Amino acid sequence: MERIEVEPREGWPSIIEQQGLIYWKTELPDGSTMPYWHESNAYTLTSDEVYEMEASVRLMMEMLVEAGDYIIESNLFSQMGIPGWAVPRIKETWESEPPMLYGRFDFAYGPDGSFKMLEYNADTPTALVETAVQWHWVQDVYGAGGDQWNMVHELLVARWKELKPRLPGDRVYMLHTTQEKSGEDFMTVGYMIETAREAGLTCELMPIEKLGLHEHLGFIDDLGRSVRTIFKLYPWEWMIHEDFADEALKRMGDEQGETLWMEPIWKMLWSNKGILPVLWRLFPDHPNLLPAFFEGEEHNLTSYVQKPLLAREGANSLIVIDGNEVDRGPDQGYGEEGYVVQQFTDLGTYDGNHPVMGVWTVDMEPAGLGIRESTGLVTNNLSRFVPHIIAD
């Protein structure tokens, strides 16, 4: 893999805004902004590298299934910060397998050629619009001969077509939250609507704050219509603490008065950083895994990353190398739920940047790649999205 210079397209901010990427700037602490979308450079990969990543992800998905079984059998819910009232529904949906849609692995692709799992964003992964937009970039810059590992759009449409007969109600409600101010969640849900409509589904875009409850109909929209199927960009670890959590757990299903949720609540098993020590316990020394341990477990790591079980974008994480703190993520209040410790791995350095490989999955299938890079060792909310191209 290499990082190359590329001539940015003339008028690129207007181009990507028209394609849905309205949040292409990141606000800095001093009030200034920097581009989040970065097309002055690109990463090049070979077909062999892509095939290796794809094969690794297929295997990792199978390993995640074994890890979910293990968490339930070993009753690790408390250790993973999952409250007891959510456990029965997690177990039930794990067995009944209501529809799931997508996820995103984060991998390190180090200078030694090793492909190491950092985490799996299984419930509310973002950077989806960026991944779609970069396909237009490769076509504009490289023409019809430009290639990219990017089947995310096609596989999402195919997945919606497959799910259409299984979804209760006459429409899918796509929920975002008004608490998110950058526009990222809104546009991510908007893009998901585009894929669902292309598959022939009727969709309604709605803030989760407008979701109502009727004694007999169950959840309703702002027009009083029964809400039977929901895709939400609102994490389950927040939902289970909301006022409507009891009703959401009680009315979970495809019967009248019930609601089918995507992603399903069992995704709490996979989106939790606690999945990392579970995978290491089940598959020690696997070439795609890093040694990982729950907080308080004995280990001999001197270079490691301490991560909260439920944090996002590097929040409240700590990087220690040879016993010394070298970087720390922003404080966003995570950590009370507990931590895991994962061996530090080299992300590689490209012109002073450290890339993380975001590999998308649709259902259980690897679907494509989006790369974010940071100048620091923590990939946080100041990272940049950089497109890629397959160049053999």
Tell me what you see in this structure.
By secondary structure, the chain is α+β, with helices and mostly antiparallel strands. It has one domain (2-271, 349-390). The protein contains 9 helices and 21 strands. It has helices at residues 12-18, 47-74, 87-96, 128-142, 152-163, 184-198, 236-239, 245-250, 275-282; strands at residues 2-5, 25-27, 33-35, 41-45, 102-109, 115-121, 172-176, 203-207, 212-214, 218-220, 229-232, 260-262, 292-294, 304-308, 318-321, 324-328, 339-343, 354-362, 365-374, 384-386, 388-390. It has a 5-stranded antiparallel sheet with strand order 6-5-18-19-20. Helix 2 (47-74) crosses helix 9 and helix 5 packs across helix 6. The radius of gyration is 21 Å and the shape is globular.
Topology:
Blueprint: E1 2-5, H1 12-18, E2 25-27, E3 33-35, E4 41-45, H2 47-74, H3 87-96, E5 102-109, E6 115-121, H4 128-142, H5 152-163, E7 172-176, H6 184-198, E8 203-207, E9 212-214, E10 218-220, E11 229-232, H7 236-239, H8 245-250, E12 260-262, H9 275-282, E13 292-294, E14 304-308, E15 318-321, E16 324-328, E17 339-343, E18 354-362, E19 365-374, E20 384-386, E21 388-390
Helix pairs in contact: 2-9, 5-6
State the domain count: 1
Mean pLDDT: 93
Total count of strands: 21
Major sheet: size, sense and barrel closure?
Answer: 5 strands, antiparallel
Overall geometry:
globular
- Determine the number of helices (DSSP H or I, runs of at least 4 residues): 9
Strand content: 25-35%
Domain Glutathionylspermidine synthase pre-ATP-grasp-like: 12-390
Protein name: Glutathionylspermidine synthase family protein
Keywords: ATP-binding, Ligase, Magnesium, Metal-binding, Nucleotide-binding
GO molecular function, one term: metal ion binding
